[in-house]
Amino acid sequence: MMHNNLTLRCETPIHIGNGEKYTFLDYFVDNGIMHVVDIDRVFDEIEDINVIDDLCGDIEKNIINGQAQINIREFFKQYEIDVREYVVGTIKTTVKPSRRVQISQFINQNGNSYIPGSSIKGAIRTAYLFNYYDGNIERLVEILKNPKIGNKYKSINDEAIGDIEKDIFRYLYVSDSEFIPKEKFTVIEARRYNNIKQKEGNPTYLEVINEGTDVKFEIGIDKGFRNSLNDIASWCNNLSGTVVEYEISNRYGGKYQAYYKKLSDEIKRNEDYFYLNLGFGGGHITKAIYLLLWKHNKDLRLIRGILKKERLIKEGMRVNDFYEFPRTRVIFNNMPLGWVKICGRDENDIYIKHRK
Q1: What does 16-84 look like in DSSP terms, one character per residue?
Q2: Is 349 left (phi over 0), alpha (psi -120 to 50) or beta?
Q3: 8 Å CB contact between 227 and 114
Q4: How far apart are CA 230 and CA 351, in angstroms?
Q5: 139 with 191: CB under 8 angstroms?
Q6: Residue 321 neighbours by CB distance under 10 Å
Q7: How many Å apart are CA 193 and CA 329, to the nearest integer?
Q8: Fewer Cβ in 10 A, N or C end of the chain?
């Protein structure tokens, strides 16, 4: 196996969730710092069951329309408990101290956060599929139009990559990243931006890796994979470049288009890097099939059928052109989330070159 030690740089904030959330009982905010509290230990150390009952009753009274009204630091003072003694970690935050919101946690292992190798490998796999059908677009259309093929996604995947027994990605190893220090994280208030209405919608609160953060990881390529790291870089930049082209050309595009113009210049200029979109916020456009039909100007009815089947559009809603879907993006400071660039040397001390 050829081992490649690589560096991943976060170009925009990245969130990869673990399904867990910080609730209003898990933290308080002070001077731009979120203090994470071990609330279980707080309750474990209260010996009087009557006090626990009173606490739980008061907490329930302070939840109105499903929203908590409690600052736990001030709340527990009533019971002569200083929750600062139970702080187990701190994270920078842009969320105002007055907000009592649920915050999606970044994936971690025993409190140590990292970027899963499976997330990177999944993005590479999507890039491979995109490149395969970019050169075989008529075959993709043929599969999508064939009424005899029930599971079209399985057929598309199996033809390009192979079924479970022949899957070429069994020979590609992608490690988890090194553990990432908490000082590299921030809790942010991201917003859903509606392209067509040109306005921001509801906020979502996320623990993210800060832009500009570098992390190390490894890609191992066994001989059964039959492709090089340079091939992987080319696939990824073809897909990422198409995403960028789509966003720049989208006539409904708004605040985030300036970032994509900058990213487009970077992808064209930097031969020693390849680009991927990871985690939450990437949206449906980063999936290969939608982009390929747009890129090759194929029948819009195909994509309408896919969207309807996947229940991604409401009954009766029409998509009149490719730019009308998806209608929302998740942004922070006018940036889309999840963009990374990857650089490194292989074991032969050769820089990645994505251009052929």
Answers
A1: -EEEEEE-TTSEEEETTEEEEE-HHHHHHT---HHHHHHHHHHHHHTEETTEE---HHHHHHTTT--GG
A2: left
A3: no
A4: 9
A5: no
A6: 12
A7: 5
A8: C
**CA-based torsion, 120, 122, 127, 132: positive or negative:** positive
What residue spans define the domains of the chain?
2-12+115-183+221-346, 24-101
What share of the chain in percent tops pLDDT 90? 49
142 vs 151: CA distance, rounded Å? 14
Measure CA 128 to chain center. 19
Tokens of 218: 């490894």
- Residue 155: other Cβ atoms inside 10 A: 14
Paired strand residues for 206: 104, 188
Distance, CA of 146 to CA of 150 (rounded, Å):
9
pLDDT, one tens digit per residue, over 294-351 is 999 887 777 776 666 655 555 555 677 778 777 788 999 999 999 999 986 544 444 5
Question: Among all chains, which residue has been given the structure tokens 């199996």?
Answer: 158
Do 248 and 264 meet the contact criterion of CB atoms below 8 Å apart?
A: yes
